[in-house]
């Protein structure tokens, strides 16, 4: 079962409408178009706390759009996305962005700020922390991604892998409940991919809930609790990575994975 039946049953529902059994993230019949072009055609899935979902699919299948719907970087036309039982549409955007962090393919650090300042910025502006507290917190996040020695470096002085790790530290600094990754290693030189995946594996092992678009199947095998194959705006198949790798139910999944690995 997919546990959906719980929703309509009053059994353990608290007064605020949430229940202890709510998944961290619930996506129901998500539909999204850009003008005439339908991009997401009814996406349904739940993500429990501490789960790591890896999303794969051809270019243009809607992977980035789906992530962007989750933290409302883009609007959607149909369906519901809930975080801990609460619709993201009803949430204050700042609150949503604090609870759901995102790491992009393009490493968008501020060039005129040091690594530390890049991480501190959101803490100061969004969380209104004092300079000292923000710096302490930012420093501990840089340590977490192995970049404390580079705290005073500017982006131009960092490798692509180091910049991406600063991006991860910046997202972590907000204490997100869910982290979204959109092809975090796709823009990196091959020799720099490993250090970023290692940080992501550590986060996964530490219990971070993650939704990760990546074609790094070594990471998927090692870290994913579930693998989702998206094509033409629909989930073609979803299951434990070993199942999709070793005995996919759909030919399309087999063919796509054969090209990746
Ligand atoms: P993926 O990340 O799987 O490659 P995307 O979610 O980026 O796919 O894109 C899905 C479809 O939506 C593509 O056909 C793309 O051209 C279209 N699309 C994405 N972003 C926009 C946008 N801002 N405006 C119009 N169309 C878009
Ligand atoms: Mg994309």
TrEMBL record:
Keywords: Amino-acid transport, ATP-binding, Cell membrane, Membrane, Nucleotide-binding, Transport. Pfam families: ABC_tran (PF00005). Residues 1-23 are annotated as: Disordered. Belongs to the ABC transporter superfamily. It comes from Halomarina oriensis. InterPro entries: AAA+_ATPase (IPR003593), ABC_ATPase_HisP-typ (IPR030679), ABC_transporter-like_ATP-bd (IPR003439), ABC_transporter-like_CS (IPR017871), MetN_ABC_transporter-like (IPR050086), P-loop_NTPase (IPR027417). It is a peripheral membrane protein. GO terms for cellular component: plasma membrane. This is ATP-binding cassette domain-containing protein. It comes from the Archaea. It is found in: Cell membrane. PROSITE patterns: ABC_TRANSPORTER_1, ABC_TRANSPORTER_2. Its main location: membrane. Residues 25-257 form the ABC transporter domain. One of its GO terms (molecular function) is ATP binding. Residues 1-7 have a biased composition (Basic and acidic residues).
